[in-house]
Each structure stands twice: as structure tokens, then as C-alpha cells.
């Protein structure tokens, strides 16, 4: 089932310093990371690899998103781990 949301709602849901899972047309798999900045048409994602933040930051356009997972038990645990 496909559910479409207005892009304005998606933009307001993705906030700086939030841990998210992202799937878009350019990625092979879902990427989990921390949003480092948000802009009108895109946001920056610092990937999480092996329970630590990587040095690479990806620019992700809202138009290219397939799926965004804002919360899950795994993400809550990872957020707690990163904030300890």
C-alpha cells in the first residue's frame, strides 16, 4: 500500500538531531543516521555505522524519498546509546 503525504508535512516531521531511517532512489538499503541540518528542499544525514556516527554526511532531497522511519524501538535504543 502506498500512502502519500504532502511534502510540507514530511519536511516538518524531519528535525535536526533526530535519528531517522531513510530509503530513497539512490540508496541500495535503508540508511540510519542523524539529521544534521534541514533546508527547504533537502536535509543532511550523518550515517550511523556499527553504532557510531560516520564522518560522511549525505545530502538528501525530499523529492527523492521513498520511505522515512522516524521512530522505532531500535532507533530509541540507538539514540539512548549515542546520548550516554
What are its keywords?
globular; 20% helix; alpha+beta; 84 residues; 5-stranded antiparallel sheet
Compact summary:
The chain is α+β, with helices and mostly antiparallel strands. The protein has two helices and five strands.
Give a description of the structure:
- There is one protein chain.
- The protein contains 2 helices and 5 strands; from the N terminus they run αβββββα.
- The termini are far apart.
- It has a 5-stranded antiparallel beta sheet with strand order 4-3-2-1-5.
- With 84 residues, it is an alpha+beta fold.
- It has one domain (7-81).
Which SSEs are present, and which pair or pack?
Layout: H1 7-13, E1 19-24, E2 31-38, E3 42-49, E4 52-61, E5 65-69, H2 73-82
Antiparallel strand pairs: 1-2, 1-5, 2-3, 3-4
Quaternary status: single chain
Q: How many domains in all?
A: 1
Order of helices and strands: HEEEEEH
Total strands:
5
| SS element count, helices | 2
Coarse shape: globular
- Tell me the major beta sheet: 5 strands, antiparallel
| Low-pLDDT ranges | none
User: Radius of gyration, rounded?
Assistant: 12 Å
Termini distance? 38 Å
Mean pLDDT over the full residue set:
77
Task: Give the neighbour order of strands across the main sheet.
Answer: 4-3-2-1-5
**Proportion in β-strands:** 35-45%
Helix share, percent: 10-25%
Helix-strand category: alpha+beta
